[in-house]
Design goal:
Low-confidence stretches: 149-153
Number of strands: 5
Distance between the termini: 53 Å
Order of helices and strands: HEHEHEHEEHH
Oligomer: single chain
Strand content: 15-25%
Number of domains: 1
């Protein structure tokens, strides 16, 4: 009987944690009043088409995931419209993004879309509002992303004492 009570308590804690994190992620996403949830493949295609005129921001998130909650807090700090896909509900859209961009799906995931294609992406804890703002402010894409990778590699070289 004691093991049943313990098991029931553990289940209640896990269920409460999942519910709390889902609501917390939704609150963070709603704090930016310019979020647009994509509801269909047509919406996704329109996003890529409209990126010919201006850069678009796309955030794939799972409201059940605590890492996605952390990324949602970062995304909520961005100005402008952020297009959202809830991957827990719209597997078809996350697969379509993977097919369209050639970037394997990982959730959470953030894309900058321009000229009908993704020019930059990040996932998990690499989704940082400051990095995205920096990228958008210089109007870069692949060149800026590559420069950041080169800079990060340089910071990890043995002469800096950080590398192996």
């Amino acid at each position: 009987m004691d093991s049943f009570v313990i098991l029931l308590a553990v289940f209640a804690v896990i269920l409460g944690y999942r519910f709390f994190n889902r609501n917390r992620a939704k609150r963070h996403l709603m704090s930016n009043s310019e979020n647009v949830e994509l509801a269909s493949l047509t919406d996704l295609e329109s996003l890529f088409t409209s990126s010919e005129q201006s850069q678009k921001l796309l955030f794939l998130h799972d409201p059940w995931c605590p890492i996605s909650g952390a990324a949602a807090r970062e995304v909520s700090e961005l100005d402008g419209v952020v297009h959202l896909i809830d991957v827990s509900k719209r597997h078809d859209l996350s697969r379509a993004v993977e097919s369209r961009t050639g970037v394997r799906h990982e959730s959470p995931q953030f894309f900058v879309i321009s000229g009908g294609r993704q020019i930059w992406n990040a996932s998990h804890y690499d989704i940082q509002a400051n990095d995205i703002r920096e990228l958008l402010s210089v109007g870069g894409g692949e060149e800026v992303a590559e420069a950041k990778v080169v800079k990060q590699r340089a910071e990890l070289t043995p002469e800096n004492g950080d590398g192996a």
